[in-house]
Amino acid sequence: MKRSTIISNFSSKLEDVWKVVTDNTVYTWRSDLRKIKMSDDEKSFTEITKDGFETEFTITLKKPYERYEFNMKNKNMTGHWIGIFSKHGSGTKIEFIEQVETTNPIMNLFVKSYLKKQQATYIADLKKALGE
User: Fold this and answer.
1) CA distance 115 to 68
2) Of 77, 53, 84, nearest to 1 (Cα)?
3) Which domains does the chain have, with CATH numbers?
4) How far apart are CA 81 and CA 51, in angstroms?
5) Rounded distance between C-alpha atoms, residue 125 and residue 29, angstroms
């Protein structure tokens, strides 16, 4: 299993960062996504990338303003994502941890750099969404 962690600080309030990250009905701020389909019970969702690739997510923990976790899977991988949120001065500190296992051993050679790139894009998009 490959693991990638990104830590970032925001000047925005914890509540504002939490809302943007955990509200899966609002996704237009994400530069990599075309759509998110929510389940009726809102415990799972499917992200569809700009090029039509789908990944399924099942929320496993949602502790407001502290921790958000979900399992994820698509045809190339399975994994788990952890988001840790905390106050940092008057702003917010986030730590996002992604652990994945690929279905193809060759992909294992590239998955860590792919995860780092995806995480960097997500943080850049989040900063823009928050006006930072």
Assistant:
1) 18
2) 77
3) 2-23+55-129 (3.30.530.20)
4) 22
5) 6
3-state secondary structure of 53: coil
pLDDT in tens, 50-63: 999 999 999 999 99
CB 126 within 8 A of CB 6: no
pLDDT tens digits for 89-120? 999 999 999 999 999 888 888 888 889 999 99
Three-state SS string over 83-124 comes to EEEEEECCEEEEEEEEEEEECCCCHHHCHHHHHHHHHHHHHH
With contact defined as beta carbons under 8 Å apart, do 126 and 17 qualify?
yes
For residues 86 and 42, which has the higher predicted lDDT (pLDDT)? Answer: 86
